[in-house]
Design goal:
polyphosphate kinase like, 23% strand, Endonuclease, Chain A, alpha/beta, 8-stranded mixed β-sheet, 29 strands, 10-stranded mixed β-sheet
Length: 710
């Protein structure tokens, strides 16, 4: 067996940071509309928050443990932390340089201004004074830091002021520090009233800073500076030791805000003596310090993106049409009985999935509804359909994942409401997150009882379904239905895993089957049969799978990977991975679907599912990957992948040194933006075209030419 060294792998953390850099490049791209650039600017910060809350926090825990080991790329936890600090600091500097030099000036030219004291006129000052007195002052709490008041606990990701002041007492003037938290309940941007609907804003921090003397009467304030603390936000629930998982997760959520500090962000003009005291009180070092020359927590700038203003500063609106395969069909069940259906979101409306649930809830012939819920977003239609089904006397089961990261509180709330409505709510398996996406409908048809399935790559969340690219399959395939039935029995009851007929399911068999499929391509290549792998996913970090891909490349298999985020595979290494090309697409929509195509000696197979090729997905989650067996649907997915591989507008290529370079068209090559083409294709198919006799028929699907085997 070939031996691979640490030099053959890329750092997962560095690779993820390079992904976030590509998001920042979208914010920098002048061809994007201005408010879309601001949106990407905010996403960069949101991504970094989660990165520090989870990945950096985990690395710090490794550093504090007694176990010293190297990661897949050969770094120790300490070495990884140093790399992260250096790379992240450079990214943050680039981000705020972009804000100061391009985005804020461009917004001002477009009529979206951020005003500051003392440049605010008297009329606006009067409005802000009333706003402060009625809305802000009642919820402010000044916290002293002195011998009688220890340094207060700073909640995760809250904006705060550290205030340097002097107060007179019997012993003379005493220098003190104080902390003021900016209330989360108030909007971070305050819009000033304008008769002409102009968009003038003042940051809430500006208002509080201006009136600090009001809440520290009798003192002399020498300075005030904003700061923000990021804390470890991973959940730690020992499921074997708790009687009620829901209550345990609720308790752990309360503890999350009190997790260990992992990052400190402070204003650029904050004196070193002040931020050094903050670091000391938080148990951090200068490696954890980020000096911010701009708005701290830019995610709150999303407020200027929201609303119905400035359409000229946004992407053209896109309303996903109902897919042609289900349009004007009264009964989805009758349509699914005839043939499998495939939907491509967000280009085809997610309302079809909602309709599937709502029809099941109302249909008197439906006997049972079973569904996995990972992130619903609290959508009333999804939850409402399950409640209605229960109210109509159907047996309804929801397998709810309470530990869906950063969505736990929302899932707890909806789990309680579902239970109150009569839905059987189950929290899955001990130690395993339920990440697979499946709905099973049991219906009494005229001829027999039949089971209908919806399987998908994305969550049952209509909000994200408008901005994430995902695939949905509807089927009444008996083998698929039997596999899904057995899986639900395993999740809700007491049973051993039964090897599925068609589905690939983690944590029991998915990694093994995935590696076997990759090895099969290597065997075909060695026998001079057609062999190729095209795989699209969010992340590729599992060492065993990467080694299998290396062996396939060595056997002569052409491997094309479309990896949005972290990729530990190092392409282009002579003798190891020269047949592997890795691309990443970062565009208007978040690439979220997982698709796996194997040429299989000229008998292509295509699989779609919920799992990335990561150890966590293979072994710590319940995942579902399913084959696409209908030939026309299989070809459609192959054409989707081909169009994405042809993208030379929003695509980036991973180099062997771990850097990414933009894919650009050659001099005689047309520009290809796959997401724009998918939108145009969906809209084109939704418009009827007339025949010579005046009848209306749908336009034929566009054919995509490409190289043999793609």
């Amino acid at each position: 067996m070939t031996t691979f060294s640490t030099e053959h792998y890329l750092s997962r953390e560095r690779s993820w940071l390079e992904f976030n850099q590509r998001v920042l490049e979208e914010a920098s791209n002048p061809s994007n509309p201005l408010l879309e650039r601001v949106k990407f600017f905010c996403i960069v910060s949101s991504n970094l928050d989660e990165f520090f809350e989870v990945r950096v926090a985990g690395i710090k825990q490794q550093m504090e443990s007694e176990i010293v080991e190297r990661s897949i790329d050969g770094r120790t936890a300490t070495e990884t932390a140093r790399m992260i600090a250096k790379r992240t600091r450079r990214m943050v500097e680039d981000q705020y340089r972009l804000w100061r030099g391009e985005l804020q000036p461009a917004l001002e030219r477009a009529g979206i201004r951020f005003l500051e004291y003392p440049g605010i006129d008297e009329t606006d000052r009067a409005f802000l004074k009333r706003y402060y007195e009625t809305q802000v002052r009642p919820v402010l709490t000044p916290l002293a830091v002195d011998p009688a008041h220890p340094f207060p606990h700073i909640a995760n990701k809250t904006l705060n002021f550290v205030v340097s002041l002097t107060i007179e007492d019997e012993g003379g003037p005493q220098s003190r520090l104080a902390v003021v938290q900016v209330p989360r309940v108030l909007p971070r941007l305050v819009r000033l009233p304008r008769e002409d609907d102009a968009l003038d804003f003042v940051f809430l921090g500006q208002i509080i800073g201006h009136y600090l003397s009001d809440i520290f009467p009798g003192t002399t304030i020498h300075g005030h500076w904003k700061f923000r603390v990021t804390r470890n936000s991973e959940l730690y629930v020992a499921e074997d030791d708790v009687d009620n998982l829901l209550h345990a997760v609720e308790e752990e959520l309360r503890n999350r805000r009190r997790g260990e500090a992992v990052r400190l962000e402070v204003d650029a003009d904050c004196p070193a003596a002040i931020w050094q005291q903050l670091l000391e009180n938080l148990g951090l070092t200068e490696d954890d310090l980020f000096i911010i020359d701009g708005p701290i927590n830019p995610t709150r700038l999303m407020a200027i993106y929201e609303g119905d203003h400035s359409p000229e500063l946004r992407d053209p609106p896109f309303l996903a049409p109902i897919a042609a395969s289900v349009r004007d069909r009264a009964s989805l069940f009758a349509t699914i009985r005839r043939r499998d259906l495939l939907l491509h979101h967000p280009y085809e409306s997610f309302n079809t999935v909602v309709d599937f649930l709502e029809q099941a809830a109302r249909d008197p012939n439906v006997l049972a509804v079973k569904q996995t819920l990972y992130r619903t977003g609290g959508d009333p239609r999804i939850i409402g359909a399950l409640m209605l089904a229960a109210e109509n006397g159907k047996q309804v089961t929801a397998v709810t994942e309470l530990k869906a990261r950063f969505d736990e509180a929302n899932n707890i709330e909806w789990a309680k409401r579902l239970e109150d409505a009569g839905v059987h709510v189950v929290y899955g398996l001990v130690g395993k997150k339920i990440h697979g996406k499946v709905t099973l409908i049991v219906r009494k048809d005229e001829d027999r009882i039949r089971r209908y399935l919806h399987l998908a790559t994305g969550n049952y969340n209509p909000t994200t379904a408008r901005i994430y690219t995902d695939l949905s399959l509807f089927t009444a395939n008996v083998d698929f239905a039997e596999d899904a039935t057995n899986l639900f029995n395993l999740l809700t009851g007491i049973a051993k895993f039964q090897t599925p007929r068609k589905l690939l399911v983690a944590p029991w068999q998915l990694q093994q089957r995935t590696i076997a499929l990759i090895q099969r391509e290597a065997d075909h290549a060695q026998k001079k049969r057609p062999a190729r792998i095209v795989a699209k996913m969010n992340s590729l970090t599992d060492p065993e799978t990467i080694r299998a891909l290396y062996r396939a490349s060595q056997a002569g298999v052409r491997v094309d990977l479309i990896i949005r985020g972290a990729c530990c595979l190092r392409p282009g290494i002579p003798g190891v991975s020269e047949n592997i090309v890795v691309r990443s697409i970062v565009g208007r929509f978040l690439e979220h679907s997982r698709v796996f195509q194997f040429e299989n000696g000229g008998k292509p197979e295509v699989y779609v599912g919920s799992a990335d090729w990561m150890s966590r997905n293979f072994f710590r989650r319940v995942e579902i990957v399913f084959p696409i067996e209908e030939p026309s649907l299989r070809e459609r997915i192959r054409s989707i992948l081909q169009r994405q591989l042809a993208d030379n507008t929003k695509a980036w290529k991973l180099e062997s040194d771990g850097s990414y370079t933009p894919v650009v068209p050659s001099a005689n090559e047309a520009k290809v933006d796959c997401q724009s083409e998918f939108m145009a294709l969906a809209v084109g198919e939704s418009r009827p075209s007339r025949t010579r006799k005046g009848r209306i028929r749908p336009k034929p699907k566009a054919r995509i030419k490409g190289k043999k085997g793609s």
